[in-house]
Design a protein that fits this description.
Elements lengths: L4 E6 L13 H18 L5 H6 L2 E12 L8 E11 L3 E10 L5 E13 L10 H6 L3
Antiparallel strand pairs: 1-3, 2-5, 3-4, 4-5
Organism: marine sediment metagenome
Protein name: Thioesterase domain-containing protein
Family: Belongs to the 4-hydroxybenzoyl-CoA thioesterase family.
Length: about 140
């Protein structure tokens, strides 16, 4: 079982849709923010380090279940964890929770592929990176 890490976000006015709750597309941004934050803070290998090594990540697939709406001013926790790695990809699971109630507003996963920044093509994930993210 991999370690789960949390990032906190406060919902801003620009994230609200015509139904007066967070638009579903913003949930993608919440997970992206949490991953960038956690890569640096929790795994001690930031996206900038990937860039220096000539790598980037691309989303191969994403799955979301929306359970409860999130509203303006809500404090949320974005919890992510690496579920597993393959040769060229990694599966990152997430939950978005309302901080006050700890109820799950959304959950799902992303599959990310490691990309060679020069060629734009998928590349095998180096062993040292797999080790760093396998906590």
């Amino acid at each position: 079982m991999y370690t789960k890490f949390d990032s906190e976000i406060i919902v801003r006015p620009s994230e609200i849709d015509i139904n007066r709750h967070v638009h579903q597309s913003v949930y993608f941004d919440y997970v992206l923010f949490a991953r960038w934050d956690q890569m640096k803070r929790c795994y001690k290998m930031s996206m900038e380090e990937f860039f220096k090594r000539g790598y980037s990540w691309a989303t191969k697939s994403a799955y979301f279940e929306f359970n409860k709406p999130i509203f303006l001013g809500d404090k949320i926790i974005v919890r992510t964890w690496v579920e597993g790695a393959k040769q060229k990809s990694v599966k990152v699971c997430f939950q978005i929770l309302k901080k006050e109630t700890e109820k799950i507003a959304a959950e799902g996963y992303f599959v990310y592929v490691l990309i060679n920044a020069k060629t734009g093509k998928p590349e095998n994930i180096p062993e040292d990176i797999i080790k760093i993210y396998s906590v």
